[in-house]
Design goal:
2 copies of one chain form a homodimer.
Chain A: H1 3-12, H2 19-31, H3 37-44, H4 53-65, E1 70-72, E2 80-82, E3 88-93, E4 99-103, E5 118-129, H5 131-138
Parallel strand pairs in A: 3-5
Antiparallel strand pairs in A: 1-2, 3-4
Helix pairs in contact in A: 1-2
The structure holds manganese (II) ion (MN) (2 copies) and zinc ion (2 copies).
One zinc ion binds at residues 93, 95-96, 98, 130, 132-133 of chain B.
Chain A binds a DNA duplex (30 and 30 nucleotides) through α2 and α4.
DNA sequence: CATAAATTTGTAATCATTTCATTTATTAAT
DNA sequence: ATTAATAAATGAAATGATTACAAATTTATG
């Protein structure tokens, strides 16, 4: 995904592709690290002159409203953002705090019998210790 | 579940059944409303003389560590607590902010192929509009 | 009862996020 | 191309949930 494709993608989803928005979306899709606002800020501040943290909040909130990003609530004290809006699960490691994706087939997602409910979002996440950290502990 | 049973339950799980702990656990199991700390506080302050919000935080953190309560991270700005530690899903209504349970059979829970990972917690939650609120909007 | 240990309390600190007024950039009109 | 109107970005201050911490109180132990 280059800048052009990202601009087109935003436009298609009703988001005007302004410079900072494109840069932030580009960051999300290229790093795929489910970052916090602070992670985005400390990485992009070098690249974008005079970037404000408030702008990142504004842009991410816009992305979520426009369905081009997901807000992940896994830990109570932070929101993680994800440009992959398809149905998939997340694993958060308690040790390294990293979040990794795992695929779930849509038909594997349990569908509850909630008559008359409108379901907008489905979230499935796990917490534990990743294999990398588990090995380190063992050693 | 009366006070006696709650005391025994806490004791069995390594939590000394002090008065306020029993009252707070009793609140959780009898109301089953997935409350925030503030909800618990404003309800119990009438019943327990000189209750501090800090105590509720302390007790709930102890409950979670001792696996007699779950901390639910559904919205980024609040933690909800649940005395039902069995595997089940949650639905949060955007309108009335209520959280309701739905059963998921354990074998329905998708198990990702994460080789070498230690999985401690599994969370599945939905967001949308409950049938009650959906009807009100329609009318 | 006396003493030690654990718990509770209230205040202050922390930290992520939002609000808001001002400044700057972008678009549309002249 | 200027200008006016609109939208976006900025930074400082406010908010709100949670935690830290020291002092006061309660509970357990001898
Ligand atoms: Mn993801
Ligand atoms: Mn529940
Ligand atoms: Zn790890
Ligand atoms: Zn509702």
């Amino acid at each position: 995904m280059d800048q052009q494709q990202i601009s087109a993608y935003l436009l298609k989803n009703g988001v005007r592709p302004l410079q900072k928005r494109v840069k932030i979306m580009n960051y999300l899709v290229s790093k795929r690290n489910h970052p916090t606002v602070d992670m985005i800020y400390s990485d992009l501040i070098h690249e974008i002159n005079g970037l404000s943290k408030t702008t990142i909040y504004n842009v991410l909130n816009l992305f979520v409203e426009s369905n081009v990003a997901l807000a992940l609530n896994i830990e109570g004290n932070e929101i993680r953002y994800d440009a992959d809006t398809s149905a998939h699960g997340h694993f958060k490691c308690k040790i390294c705090t990293g979040i990794i994706d795992f695929r779930i087939k849509k038909e594997e997602m349990p569908v509850p019998m909630l008559e008359g409910f409108r379901i907008d979002e489905q979230h499935y996440y796990l917490k534990g210790v990743c294999s990398f950290c588990a090995n380190k502990i063992e050693a």
